[in-house]
Amino acid sequence: MRCVLPRGGSQRFPFFFMMRDEAGRRRKPAGAPAKMLTAMAQTYRRFQAGPDPFGRTWNVEFQWLQTGISIRHADTVDVKFHVETEGEPPVERVIALRHPDVVKLSAATGHALTDAWCLKLAALHLQHMIVSGEDMEKTLVTAEYGDIEKYAAELKSGAAA
Q1: Mean pLDDT, to the nearest integer, of 22-41?
Q2: For residue 33, how many other CB atoms are within 10 A of its CB?
Q3: Which of 46, 90, 129, 141 gets the highest tally of CB atoms within 10 A of its CB?
């Protein structure tokens, strides 16, 4: 068998790799590591948040992550989510993490500055926004250092997992 990464994969689906047998047929990998990767990705890539101040639960789906300088000349890491709830039209929310803040936080916590970590910090901020109702009218929200510091501590303690 050989291991093949899917070409042109989408960020809308959890990371996984496919196995191919000698005949070239695709086979999903077996074992705990593949299941663990899928479960972790589903937690932050697609999740439910709420209830909001009106008692609604929101479905959240990660769309993309990129540096803000490439799209709006800002020194940020932008994380975009698709958010919807019953009876409301779907909306987009972009959480901007200031690059100097995440570099400082990475150094303070000893956690590597990775895309996955930024995704988790942004997802926790969006979850806070939904539950509290803060800034839900805004499409682009910049997370403050104190907030992402709190989220990093939650991730480290395992409380957010």
Answers
A1: 46
A2: 9
A3: 129
State the DSSP code for 96: E
**What are the structural domain ranges in the chain?**
44-157
Cα angle 32, 49, 90 (rounded to 5 degrees) comes to 110
DSSP per-residue string spanning 100-147:
HHHHHHHHHHT----HHHHHHHHHHHHHHHHHH-TTTT-SEEEEPHHH
Separation of CA 98 from chain center? 16
Enter the pTM of the model: 0.73
Tell me the C-alpha distance between 24 and 2, whole Å: 9
Report the Cα–Cα distance between both ends of the chain, in Å, rounded. Answer: 34
Q: What is the pLDDT of residue 36?
A: 34
Maximal CA-CA distance, the chain? 55
Helix (H) / strand (E) containing 8 = none
The whole-angstrom distance between residue 81's C-alpha and the CA centroid of its chain comes to 8
Torsional class of 50: left (φ above 0), alpha (ψ -120 to 50), beta (otherwise)? left
Query: Which amino acid belongs to residue 94?
Result: V
